[in-house]
Design a protein that fits this description.
Number of domains: 1
Radius of gyration: 14 Å
Low-confidence stretches: none
Mean pLDDT: 92
Oligomer: single chain
GO molecular function, one term: hydrolase activity, acting on ester bonds
Shape: globular
Helix content: 40-55%
Cofactor: Mg(2+)
Number of helices: 4
Pfam family, one: VRR_NUC
CATH architecture: 3-Layer(aba) Sandwich
CATH class: Alpha Beta
InterPro entries: tRNA_endonuc-like_dom_sf (IPR011856), VRR_NUC (IPR014883)
Structural class: alpha+beta
Keywords: Hydrolase, Nuclease
Order of helices and strands: HEHEEHEH
Strand content: 5-15%
Strand order of the largest sheet: 1-2-3-4
C-alpha cells in the first residue's frame, strides 16, 4: 500500500501498538475514493459529509472533545471542504491537525495525550 493510504495504515498500526486501551477510539472516516453516482447519493443520505478528517481520536483531552487528523501525503494540500470542516470542528472544541508523516502523527498524538510537549 502506498501514498496516503499506506501512511494512514502505518499510523493506525503504531497507535494500536502504543495505546491498546485507546485503539477502539481512533477510527477512520472513509469519505474518499471514487464511487458511482447511486452509491454516492446513498452515502450522502446516510450522513456522509465532505471534508471530514481522515482519522478521529474520540478521547477528550486538554479541553478538546477529540483529535481530528487529516492525513496528507508529501505535499498534498487540504481541499476547501476540508478547510471548512476544520473550522467547524475547531469551533466545536476539537483539536485538528494535518499530518504528512508517521513521525508527525506520533508527535501530534503524544502531544494531544499529554505525553510529550
Amino acid at each position: 500500500m502506498k501514498g496516503e493510504a499506506g501512511l494512514q495504515s502505518s499510523c493506525i498500526e503504531w497507535f494500536n501498538l502504543q495505546f491498546p486501551k485507546l485503539k477502539l477510539l481512533l477510527f477512520a472516516v472513509p469519505n474518499g475514493g471514487r464511487r458511482n453516482k447511486i452509491e454516492a447519493a446513498n452515502l450522502k443520505r446516510q450522513g456522509v459529509r465532505a471534508g471530514v478528517a481522515d482519522l478521529i481520536l474520540l478521547f477528550p483531552k486538554g479541553g478538546h472533545g477529540s483529535l481530528c487528523i487529516e492525513m496528507k501525503y508529501k505535499k498534498g494540500t487540504q481541499q476547501d471542504s476540508q478547510k471548512d470542516w476544520q473550522r467547524v470542528a475547531e469551533a466545536a472544541g476539537n483539536k485538528y491537525v494535518v499530518c504528512r508523516s508517521l513521525n508527525e502523527f506520533m508527535k501530534e498524538v503524544k502531544n494531544y495525550l499529554g505525553i510529550e510537549r
